[in-house]
Amino acid sequence: MSRVLVTGGSGFLGTSVVAGLAASDAIDCVVSADIRVPSPGVRLPSVLYDRVDVMEAAGLPELLRRHKIDTVVHLASIVNPGKNTTVTEEFAVDVEGSRAVFAACVKAGVSRIVVSSSGATYGYHPDNPDWITEIDPLRGNDDFPYSKHKRMVEEMLAELRQSAPQLSQTIFRIGTVLGPTVDNQITALWDGRRVLKLAGSDSPFVFVWVDDVVEVMVRAATGGPSGIFNVAGDGKVTVREIALGLGKKLLVLPPWVFAVALWVGHGLRLTPHKPAQVKFLRYRPVLDNRALKESFGFRPSKTSHEAFSAYLEARALR
Protein backbone atom coordinates (compact mmCIF):
# COMPACT_ATOMS: atom_id res chain seq x y z
CA MET A 1 0.00 0.00 0.00
CA SER A 2 1.48 3.33 -1.08
CA ARG A 3 1.27 6.62 0.78
CA VAL A 4 1.42 9.41 -1.80
CA LEU A 5 1.87 13.18 -1.70
CA VAL A 6 1.04 15.22 -4.81
CA THR A 7 2.60 18.65 -5.35
CA GLY A 8 0.43 20.99 -7.41
CA GLY A 9 -2.58 18.94 -6.34
CA SER A 10 -5.10 21.75 -6.92
CA GLY A 11 -4.23 22.42 -10.57
CA PHE A 12 -6.04 21.10 -13.64
CA LEU A 13 -3.94 17.94 -13.87
CA GLY A 14 -3.34 17.72 -10.12
CA THR A 15 -7.05 17.61 -9.27
CA SER A 16 -7.56 14.70 -11.65
CA VAL A 17 -4.45 12.84 -10.46
CA VAL A 18 -5.42 13.25 -6.80
CA ALA A 19 -8.88 11.83 -7.55
CA GLY A 20 -7.35 8.91 -9.46
CA LEU A 21 -4.96 8.11 -6.64
CA ALA A 22 -7.72 8.34 -4.04
CA ALA A 23 -9.79 5.84 -6.02
CA SER A 24 -6.97 3.26 -6.13
CA ASP A 25 -7.19 0.26 -3.82
CA ALA A 26 -3.37 0.13 -3.81
CA ILE A 27 -3.02 3.48 -2.04
CA ASP A 28 -3.50 3.92 1.69
CA CYS A 29 -3.09 7.71 1.97
CA VAL A 30 -3.20 10.67 -0.45
CA VAL A 31 -1.97 14.13 0.52
CA SER A 32 -2.69 16.98 -1.90
CA ALA A 33 -0.09 19.75 -1.43
CA ASP A 34 -0.58 23.10 -3.14
CA ILE A 35 -0.36 26.82 -2.42
CA ARG A 36 -3.91 27.12 -3.76
CA VAL A 37 -6.88 26.14 -1.62
CA PRO A 38 -9.09 23.64 -3.46
CA SER A 39 -12.69 24.64 -3.98
CA PRO A 40 -15.28 22.75 -1.88
CA GLY A 41 -16.59 21.10 -5.03
CA VAL A 42 -13.34 19.21 -5.71
CA ARG A 43 -12.34 18.32 -2.15
CA LEU A 44 -12.51 14.59 -1.50
CA PRO A 45 -13.25 13.24 1.99
CA SER A 46 -10.53 10.59 1.74
CA VAL A 47 -7.79 13.08 0.77
CA LEU A 48 -5.69 15.17 3.15
CA TYR A 49 -5.13 18.74 1.93
CA ASP A 50 -2.07 20.72 3.02
CA ARG A 51 -0.99 24.20 1.98
CA VAL A 52 2.56 23.90 0.59
CA ASP A 53 4.50 26.51 -1.35
CA VAL A 54 7.33 24.78 -3.20
CA MET A 55 9.25 28.07 -3.11
CA GLU A 56 9.19 27.90 0.69
CA ALA A 57 9.43 24.15 1.22
CA ALA A 58 11.60 24.08 4.35
CA GLY A 59 8.88 22.20 6.21
CA LEU A 60 8.28 19.64 3.46
CA PRO A 61 10.60 16.92 4.86
CA GLU A 62 8.70 16.99 8.16
CA LEU A 63 5.37 16.86 6.29
CA LEU A 64 6.57 13.81 4.36
CA ARG A 65 7.71 12.10 7.55
CA ARG A 66 4.54 12.95 9.46
CA HIS A 67 2.35 11.30 6.84
CA LYS A 68 4.86 8.47 6.26
CA ILE A 69 4.95 9.28 2.55
CA ASP A 70 6.83 6.77 0.38
CA THR A 71 5.91 8.22 -3.05
CA VAL A 72 5.80 11.84 -4.27
CA VAL A 73 4.04 12.81 -7.49
CA HIS A 74 5.59 16.13 -8.49
CA LEU A 75 3.29 18.21 -10.71
CA ALA A 76 3.89 21.75 -9.38
CA SER A 77 4.92 24.04 -12.26
CA ILE A 78 3.84 27.24 -14.03
CA VAL A 79 2.49 25.91 -17.31
CA ASN A 80 0.41 28.96 -18.22
CA PRO A 81 2.14 32.17 -17.08
CA GLY A 82 -0.09 35.20 -16.65
CA LYS A 83 0.48 38.57 -18.28
CA ASN A 84 2.34 39.83 -15.21
CA THR A 85 4.23 36.64 -14.35
CA THR A 86 7.99 37.21 -14.53
CA VAL A 87 10.58 34.71 -15.71
CA THR A 88 12.13 34.98 -12.25
CA GLU A 89 8.87 33.79 -10.71
CA GLU A 90 8.61 30.95 -13.22
CA PHE A 91 12.18 29.87 -12.45
CA ALA A 92 11.50 29.99 -8.71
CA VAL A 93 8.59 27.57 -9.04
CA ASP A 94 9.72 25.36 -11.92
CA VAL A 95 13.39 24.92 -11.05
CA GLU A 96 14.08 26.00 -7.47
CA GLY A 97 10.76 24.56 -6.32
CA SER A 98 11.60 21.23 -7.95
CA ARG A 99 15.05 21.29 -6.36
CA ALA A 100 13.45 21.78 -2.92
CA VAL A 101 10.98 18.95 -3.49
CA PHE A 102 13.68 16.53 -4.62
CA ALA A 103 15.91 17.45 -1.67
CA ALA A 104 12.99 16.92 0.71
CA CYS A 105 12.33 13.48 -0.78
CA VAL A 106 15.93 12.42 -0.18
CA LYS A 107 15.99 13.88 3.33
CA ALA A 108 12.71 12.22 4.34
CA GLY A 109 13.61 8.82 2.86
CA VAL A 110 10.95 8.80 0.13
CA SER A 111 11.43 5.73 -2.06
CA ARG A 112 9.86 6.89 -5.35
CA ILE A 113 9.20 10.10 -7.19
CA VAL A 114 6.93 10.47 -10.22
CA VAL A 115 7.55 13.64 -12.23
CA SER A 116 5.43 15.34 -14.88
CA SER A 117 7.95 16.58 -17.41
CA SER A 118 7.06 17.69 -20.93
CA GLY A 119 7.79 17.22 -24.60
CA ALA A 120 9.03 20.83 -24.34
CA THR A 121 12.16 19.37 -22.73
CA TYR A 122 13.34 18.29 -26.18
CA GLY A 123 13.02 21.84 -27.42
CA TYR A 124 11.53 23.46 -30.50
CA HIS A 125 14.18 23.15 -33.20
CA PRO A 126 14.09 22.99 -37.00
CA ASP A 127 16.16 19.78 -37.01
CA ASN A 128 13.92 17.87 -34.60
CA PRO A 129 13.32 14.33 -35.93
CA ASP A 130 9.86 13.54 -37.30
CA TRP A 131 9.21 11.41 -34.20
CA ILE A 132 11.17 12.07 -31.01
CA THR A 133 12.09 9.19 -28.70
CA GLU A 134 13.37 9.17 -25.13
CA ILE A 135 16.99 8.72 -26.26
CA ASP A 136 16.99 11.94 -28.28
CA PRO A 137 18.90 14.83 -26.64
CA LEU A 138 17.20 17.27 -24.30
CA ARG A 139 17.97 20.65 -25.85
CA GLY A 140 15.16 22.84 -24.58
CA ASN A 141 15.16 26.47 -25.72
CA ASP A 142 16.99 29.08 -23.68
CA ASP A 143 14.66 31.81 -24.97
CA PHE A 144 11.52 29.86 -24.00
CA PRO A 145 11.46 29.68 -20.17
CA TYR A 146 9.11 26.71 -19.77
CA SER A 147 11.16 24.59 -22.17
CA LYS A 148 14.44 25.66 -20.57
CA HIS A 149 13.17 25.03 -17.06
CA LYS A 150 11.87 21.55 -17.87
CA ARG A 151 15.26 20.66 -19.32
CA MET A 152 16.99 21.97 -16.19
CA VAL A 153 14.70 19.91 -13.95
CA GLU A 154 15.51 16.77 -15.92
CA GLU A 155 19.23 17.55 -15.65
CA MET A 156 18.69 17.77 -11.89
CA LEU A 157 16.99 14.39 -11.90
CA ALA A 158 19.86 12.86 -13.90
CA GLU A 159 22.30 14.06 -11.24
CA LEU A 160 20.01 12.69 -8.54
CA ARG A 161 20.09 9.24 -10.15
CA GLN A 162 23.82 9.23 -9.39
CA SER A 163 23.81 10.87 -5.95
CA ALA A 164 20.61 9.28 -4.60
CA PRO A 165 20.02 6.00 -6.46
CA GLN A 166 17.74 4.81 -3.64
CA LEU A 167 15.11 7.28 -4.91
CA SER A 168 13.38 5.52 -7.79
CA GLN A 169 12.30 7.84 -10.60
CA THR A 170 9.51 7.67 -13.15
CA ILE A 171 9.54 10.66 -15.50
CA PHE A 172 6.74 11.32 -17.96
CA ARG A 173 7.41 13.65 -20.91
CA ILE A 174 3.83 14.56 -21.64
CA GLY A 175 2.33 15.89 -24.85
CA THR A 176 -0.57 18.36 -24.93
CA VAL A 177 -3.12 17.25 -22.35
CA LEU A 178 -6.78 17.60 -23.32
CA GLY A 179 -9.80 17.08 -21.13
CA PRO A 180 -13.41 18.23 -20.68
CA THR A 181 -12.45 21.40 -18.77
CA VAL A 182 -8.95 22.12 -20.09
CA ASP A 183 -8.07 25.78 -20.61
CA ASN A 184 -4.45 26.60 -21.43
CA GLN A 185 -2.17 28.39 -23.86
CA ILE A 186 -2.80 25.70 -26.50
CA THR A 187 -6.58 25.84 -26.39
CA ALA A 188 -6.36 29.65 -26.33
CA LEU A 189 -4.94 29.43 -29.86
CA TRP A 190 -8.31 28.05 -30.98
CA ASP A 191 -10.56 30.67 -29.42
CA GLY A 192 -10.35 33.29 -32.16
CA ARG A 193 -12.40 33.53 -35.33
CA ARG A 194 -9.56 31.86 -37.21
CA VAL A 195 -6.87 29.35 -36.30
CA LEU A 196 -3.33 30.60 -36.67
CA LYS A 197 -1.01 28.72 -39.00
CA LEU A 198 2.56 29.77 -39.70
CA ALA A 199 3.51 29.57 -43.35
CA GLY A 200 5.70 26.58 -44.15
CA SER A 201 4.77 24.52 -41.08
CA ASP A 202 2.06 21.93 -40.36
CA SER A 203 2.55 22.61 -36.61
CA PRO A 204 1.63 19.02 -35.67
CA PHE A 205 0.34 18.33 -32.16
CA VAL A 206 0.35 15.11 -30.17
CA PHE A 207 -2.57 15.02 -27.76
CA VAL A 208 -3.24 12.84 -24.75
CA TRP A 209 -6.54 12.59 -22.88
CA VAL A 210 -6.35 13.58 -19.22
CA ASP A 211 -7.70 10.20 -18.02
CA ASP A 212 -4.77 8.46 -19.71
CA VAL A 213 -2.30 10.77 -17.94
CA VAL A 214 -3.99 10.03 -14.63
CA GLU A 215 -3.79 6.29 -15.24
CA VAL A 216 -0.04 6.31 -15.94
CA MET A 217 0.54 8.49 -12.87
CA VAL A 218 -1.43 6.09 -10.66
CA ARG A 219 0.32 3.07 -12.13
CA ALA A 220 3.74 4.67 -11.58
CA ALA A 221 2.83 5.53 -7.97
CA THR A 222 1.72 1.99 -7.21
CA GLY A 223 4.70 -0.06 -8.31
CA GLY A 224 4.80 0.61 -12.04
CA PRO A 225 8.14 0.60 -13.89
CA SER A 226 10.69 3.33 -13.26
CA GLY A 227 12.26 5.09 -16.22
CA ILE A 228 11.53 7.87 -18.69
CA PHE A 229 8.52 7.74 -20.99
CA ASN A 230 6.90 9.96 -23.60
CA VAL A 231 3.15 10.19 -22.93
CA ALA A 232 0.97 10.86 -25.95
CA GLY A 233 -1.81 9.25 -27.91
CA ASP A 234 -0.97 7.49 -31.17
CA GLY A 235 -0.55 9.71 -34.21
CA LYS A 236 -0.49 13.48 -34.62
CA VAL A 237 -2.92 16.23 -35.60
CA THR A 238 -1.91 19.08 -37.90
CA VAL A 239 -3.10 22.64 -37.42
CA ARG A 240 -5.11 22.32 -40.63
CA GLU A 241 -6.96 19.33 -39.16
CA ILE A 242 -7.51 21.28 -35.94
CA ALA A 243 -9.11 24.14 -37.87
CA LEU A 244 -11.30 21.69 -39.78
CA GLY A 245 -12.48 20.10 -36.53
CA LEU A 246 -13.29 23.51 -35.06
CA GLY A 247 -15.12 24.54 -38.20
CA LYS A 248 -12.88 27.57 -38.60
CA LYS A 249 -10.73 29.00 -41.35
CA LEU A 250 -6.97 29.30 -41.13
CA LEU A 251 -5.11 32.56 -40.65
CA VAL A 252 -1.79 31.93 -42.40
CA LEU A 253 1.01 34.31 -41.41
CA PRO A 254 4.71 34.43 -42.28
CA PRO A 255 6.69 33.57 -39.13
CA TRP A 256 8.40 36.97 -39.08
CA VAL A 257 5.05 38.79 -39.07
CA PHE A 258 3.87 36.77 -36.06
CA ALA A 259 7.20 37.43 -34.30
CA VAL A 260 6.76 41.19 -34.75
CA ALA A 261 3.16 40.98 -33.48
CA LEU A 262 4.33 39.15 -30.35
CA TRP A 263 7.15 41.63 -29.80
CA VAL A 264 4.71 44.54 -29.92
CA GLY A 265 2.03 42.75 -27.88
CA HIS A 266 4.46 41.73 -25.17
CA GLY A 267 5.89 45.23 -25.00
CA LEU A 268 2.38 46.61 -24.46
CA ARG A 269 1.64 43.86 -21.90
CA LEU A 270 -1.16 42.52 -24.06
CA THR A 271 0.32 39.01 -24.01
CA PRO A 272 2.81 37.12 -21.81
CA HIS A 273 4.30 35.54 -24.92
CA LYS A 274 7.48 36.70 -26.64
CA PRO A 275 8.77 36.20 -30.21
CA ALA A 276 10.30 32.87 -29.07
CA GLN A 277 6.72 31.57 -29.22
CA VAL A 278 7.18 31.36 -32.99
CA LYS A 279 9.41 28.31 -32.49
CA PHE A 280 6.72 26.82 -30.26
CA LEU A 281 4.38 26.71 -33.26
CA ARG A 282 6.86 26.02 -36.07
CA TYR A 283 9.00 23.21 -34.68
CA ARG A 284 6.81 21.18 -32.36
CA PRO A 285 8.36 18.00 -30.93
CA VAL A 286 6.23 15.04 -32.03
CA LEU A 287 6.45 12.37 -29.34
CA ASP A 288 6.95 8.69 -30.14
CA ASN A 289 5.06 6.64 -27.53
CA ARG A 290 6.45 3.15 -28.21
CA ALA A 291 8.35 2.97 -24.90
CA LEU A 292 5.17 3.83 -23.01
CA LYS A 293 3.39 0.92 -24.67
CA GLU A 294 6.20 -1.61 -24.78
CA SER A 295 8.26 -0.89 -21.63
CA PHE A 296 5.81 0.78 -19.27
CA GLY A 297 2.99 -1.45 -20.47
CA PHE A 298 0.33 1.18 -21.09
CA ARG A 299 -1.57 1.88 -24.28
CA PRO A 300 -3.45 5.20 -24.27
CA SER A 301 -7.21 4.74 -24.59
CA LYS A 302 -7.42 7.57 -27.12
CA THR A 303 -5.27 8.44 -30.11
CA SER A 304 -4.30 12.07 -30.69
CA HIS A 305 -7.22 12.42 -33.11
CA GLU A 306 -9.66 10.77 -30.68
CA ALA A 307 -8.50 12.97 -27.80
CA PHE A 308 -9.07 16.06 -29.94
CA SER A 309 -12.53 14.81 -30.97
CA ALA A 310 -13.44 14.19 -27.32
CA TYR A 311 -12.27 17.71 -26.48
CA LEU A 312 -14.46 19.14 -29.27
CA GLU A 313 -17.47 17.26 -27.93
CA ALA A 314 -16.89 18.57 -24.40
CA ARG A 315 -16.28 22.08 -25.76
CA ALA A 316 -19.62 21.97 -27.61
CA LEU A 317 -21.42 21.00 -24.41
CA ARG A 318 -19.79 23.88 -22.52
UniProtKB/TrEMBL annotation:
Entry's transmembrane regions: none
NAD-dependent epimerase/dehydratase domain boundaries: 4-232
Source taxon at top rank: Bacteria
The protein's name: NAD-dependent epimerase/dehydratase family protein
Originating species: Rhodoglobus aureus
Lineage: Bacteria, Bacillati, Actinomycetota, Actinomycetes, Micrococcales
